[in-house]
Amino acid sequence: MVKDGIFLGKRYEVLSKIGAGGMADVYKGRDTKLNRYVAIKVLKKEFREDEDFVRKFRSEAQSAAGLMNPNIVNVYDVGEDRGLYYMVMELVEGITLKEYIERKGRLSHKEVISIAIQMCTGIGAAHAAGIIHRDIKPQNVIISKDGKVKVTDFGIAKSVTSNTISSNAMGSVHYTSPEQARGGFSDAKSDIYSIGITLFEMVTGEVPFDGDSTVSVAIKHLQEEITPPSELVPDIPYSLEQIILKCTQKNAERRYKSTDDLIRDLKRSLVDPDGDFVVIPPLRNADTVIITDEELDDIRDTYGDEDEDEYGDEYDEDEYGDEDEDEYGEDEYDVDEYGEDDEDEYGKGRKGGEDVNPRMNKVMKILMIVVAVIIIFIIIFTIGRAAGIFQTWGSGTTAEESESRVKVPNVVGMTEEEAKEALNEKGLGYKATYAESEKYEKGIVCE
């Protein structure tokens, strides 16, 4: 255990422990040379003799040291002193996004977008430097007291040129991409998948996949589609839901190609929340994903003994968790920073109900098609009936037959000649039969 008050590298004074994870402890310290407070991550004792863990710890520092971005927790220094391997980082006084979600349950849509844009800005800077985070999750996102969002813990980050990631380097299973779950190649699109899962949690207050074991959750990432967020939060803007669904596509080629593309749609969602502008590429291969026994064994080996939070929450809530919740309230984030500047690029936002939800548009289109078909059928039927094509209502005869029917005149009491003339006028013929009658005289038509 590192005691308070000791110095590392003859420069960094350890003040107090503020957090602990699966591999390292985090201390609040002071840089005596620059007279500033810092966070010092020290590798745990049980891992100091393990060359793989030491190499991994150094890899984190080397990966993150070259990243300088306002949305990344900056790494200042790395070193070893008396067998203690340590990394000196920017001290961010705040809480993790995970804690923030737990406090509020669900975040407002504008708040979700503001946090996501800042996350993507930091992660995009890492991607531009050839670094994939591979462990994006709310526990690795810090919200400072002034509302600044910073991504931390590049603990399993590797160069893009690396083909695969080892089982010890796997990120938390609830946020891992399908390709990471398989133990295959991962790239920037893998981080985008994890961003999508984080977005889902911010919107709904829960993760899309859960289970009794890490293996079962990993398999769900491979085989199951996420529940559309609108089923859990009906008032979610249509565009934001589509952004989440695009980020979390099983096929990496159907996700956003870069964080820049994702940021562009997030900004547009602020000014056109119900716009139908998110394009998800069509699925080229709809075959069911089959997991072989060998792959299943690999997944079990990867997740069977895994500590879900490899580093845990970077900062201890005891240090920063007693702040008034209002300090991190909904008004903490200024979304105008992203909203006003983009109206000219994307047009005016929705006002006065002028725009119709695209989902309603689709329903209306279907109804219009059905009505049009019915109208066309009625017109055809009416014309056909008039032309004698269809049978008349309520009879088994055609229109032509109906028109040929005439009323037979009553010829009883007429002479045979008179009856013949009356029938001929109607175009009718007759056949005479003769019989004796006490009522009528001879030659008179009788009943």
Structure characterization notes:
With 447 residues, this protein is of the alpha+beta class. It folds into four domains: 7-90, Phosphorylase Kinase, domain 1; 95-355, Transferase(Phosphotransferase) domain 1 (Transferase(Phosphotransferase), domain 1), CATH 1.10.510; 362-401, no CATH class; 406-447, no CATH class. Helix content is 37%, strand content 12%. The chain contains 15 helices and eleven strands. The protein has helices at 51-65, 97-104, 109-128, 178-181, 188-204, 214-223, 238-247, 259-271, 293-303, 317-320, 336-339, 343-346, 358-386, 399-404, 416-425, and strands spanning 7-8, 12-20, 24-31, 36-43, 75-81, 84-90, 94-96, 131-132, 141-144, 149-151, 158-159. The protein has a six-stranded antiparallel beta sheet. Strands 7-9-10 form a three-stranded antiparallel beta sheet. Helix 5 (188-204) packs across helix 7. The longest helix is centred in the last third of the chain and has 29 residues, at 358-386. It is rod-shaped. The N and C termini lie far apart (129 Å). Residues 159-171, 305-331, 333-356 and 392-397 have low confidence and may be disordered. InterPro entries: Kinase-like_dom_sf, PASTA_dom, Prot_kinase_dom, Protein_kinase_ATP_BS, Ser/Thr_kinase_AS. Pfam families: PASTA, Pkinase. Residues 296-345 have a biased composition (Acidic residues).
Major sheet summary line: 6 strands, antiparallel
Q: What is the overall pLDDT average?
A: 78
Structural class: alpha+beta
How many angstroms separate the termini? 129 Å
Detail the poorly predicted runs.
159-171, 305-331, 333-356, 392-397
Number of individual domains? 4
The CATH topology of the largest domain turns out to be Transferase(Phosphotransferase), domain 1
Strand arrangement, major sheet:
1-2-3-4-6-5
CATH architecture of the largest domain: Orthogonal Bundle
User: Helix and strand string, N-terminal first?
Assistant: EEEEHEEEHHEEEEHHHHHHHHHHHH
EC number: 2.7.11.1
Biased composition (Acidic residues): 296-345
Catalytic activity: L-threonyl-[protein] + ATP = O-phospho-L-threonyl-[protein] + ADP + H(+); L-seryl-[protein] + ATP = O-phospho-L-seryl-[protein] + ADP + H(+)
Domain PASTA: 402-447
